[in-house]
């Protein structure tokens, strides 16, 4: 089973009806035959996005909890290896590709694990192409 680095942007598109699109649905279909790996920042990003959406009355608490249950049912592995990457290394990568260090953690993980990257983030997609990281298409 091959792996796929999953950006929070795709997972959030699964959870918010108004953000769901064909690309996100294609990644979801691929999830049954691939292991999805994420950096340690991923649960914090997803959790925060759901909490903000709840506070803004975009979703209810029940919907937020249901979304977390949905994600918990998927084979998503939080990769601890990114912790070994120094903050300096992530800053260098972020500088080189004009990314946040958060997005650089996804790029770094995809590079280290030699996986394709599933993301809806335009800047991260451009950086991946420039870095020679395969994008999930």
Short structural description:
This protein has 137 residues and is an alpha/beta fold. Helices cover 57% and strands 12% of the residues. The chain has one domain: 5'-nuclease (Rossmann fold).
How many DSSP H or I helices?
Answer: 7
Number of strands: 4
Rg from Cα: 15 Å
Strand order in the sheet with the most strands: 3-2-1-4
Present the secondary structure layout.
Blueprint: E1 2-6, H1 8-15, H2 22-30, E2 34-38, H3 41-55, H4 61-72, E3 76-78, H5 87-97, H6 101-113, E4 116-118, H7 122-131
Parallel strand pairs: 1-2, 1-4, 2-3
Helix pairs in contact: 1-2, 1-3, 3-4, 5-6, 6-7
Descriptive overview:
- The protein is of the alpha/beta class and 137 residues long.
- The mean pLDDT is 91.
- It is globular, with a radius of gyration of 15 Å.
- It has helices at residues 8-15, 22-30, 41-55, 61-72, 87-97, 101-113, 122-131, and strands at 2-6, 34-38, 76-78, 116-118.
- 32% of the residues are buried.
Give short descriptive properties of this protein.
single chain, 137 residues, alpha/beta, Rossmann fold, four-stranded parallel β-sheet, 4 strands, 57% helix, 12% strand
């Amino acid at each position: 089973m091959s792996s796929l680095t999953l950006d929070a942007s795709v997972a959030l598109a699964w959870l918010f009806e108004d953000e769901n699109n064909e690309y996100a649905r294609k990644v979801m279909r691929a999830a049954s035959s691939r292991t999805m790996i994420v950096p340690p920042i991923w649960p914090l990003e997803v959790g925060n996005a759901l909490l903000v959406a709840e506070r803004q009355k975009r979703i209810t608490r029940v919907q937020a909890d249901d979304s977390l249950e949905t994600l918990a049912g998927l084979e998503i592995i939080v990769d601890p290896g990114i912790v070994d990457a120094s903050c300096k290394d992530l800053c260098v990568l972020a500088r080189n590709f004009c990314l946040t260090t958060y997005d650089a953690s996804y790029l770094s993980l995809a590079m280290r694990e030699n996986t394709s990257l599933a993301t809806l983030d335009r800047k991260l997609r451009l950086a991946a192409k420039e870095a020679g990281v395969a994008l999930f298409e």
